[in-house]
Design a protein that fits this description.
The chain has 5 helices and 7 strands. The chain is an alpha/beta fold. The protein has a single domain, classed as Vaccinia Virus protein VP39 (Rossmann fold, 3-Layer(aba) Sandwich), CATH 3.40.50.
Length: about 190
């Protein structure tokens, strides 16, 4: 269920088992951490799935959310959920590869980037490194948030180094780990 202006609305799920939806408890905890700063913010929801994180942000007053997902079913689900909540005006839905999206010149800088890729494929590190390599995607005080299963957590290796982001918090909720990064200024 969503809070904010779309309070109480249930979102459709993506058919099948190709996505890993965030639980209501974890989503509520995430937005308690973000607090009122989400109002007026711009968010990038990578590997959007149902779109619940970005839709929650819009419902709580975010100015704009860009949803990115590769597959047709999640994209259709995000669009249906946006329509059901009446939050289409603040949204852009992009069907395509998240890594290709990150390589594009951004039309805007984002205050929040949410990364929740399919599990156990190392995609979270690849996406985090891609965001780090393109600081123009990020506003001055941007946060990048990664949602993974705790067993996926492994340190960056070899030449994998974050140059523009630094971890500042980690929260563990059962089978979900949220890792928070902030933009650095070198």
């Amino acid at each position: 269920m969503i809070s904010g202006t779309a309070r109480g609305r249930r979102l459709r799920s993506v058919p099948g088992d190709t996505t890993r939806p965030i639980t209501d408890r974890v989503r509520e905890a995430l937005f308690n951490i973000l607090g009122p700063d989400v109002q007026g913010a711009r968010m990038l929801d990578l590997f959007a799935g149902t779109g619940s994180v970005g839709i929650e942000a819009l419902s709580r007053g975010a100015a704009h959310v860009t949803f990115v997902d590769l597959n047709r079913l999640p994209v259709a689900t995000v669009k249906a959920n946006l329509k059901a909540t009446g939050l289409e005006a603040g949204a852009q839905v992009w069907q395509g590869d998240a890594f290709a999206f990150l390589e594009r010149t951004p039309a805007q800088a984002y205050d929040y980037v949410y990364i929740a890729p399919p599990q156990y494929k190392g995609l979270w590190k690849r996406a985090l490194l891609a965001v780090d390599a393109h600081p123009e995607l990020l506003s001055e005080d941007a946060w990048v948030m990664v949602q993974i299963h705790p067993v996926e957590m492994e340190p960056l290796e070899g030449g994998e180094v974050l140059r523009n982001l630094a971890e500042f918090d980690r929260r563990h909720y059962g089978s979900t780990l949220l890792i928070f990064y902030e933009r650095l200024y070198n």
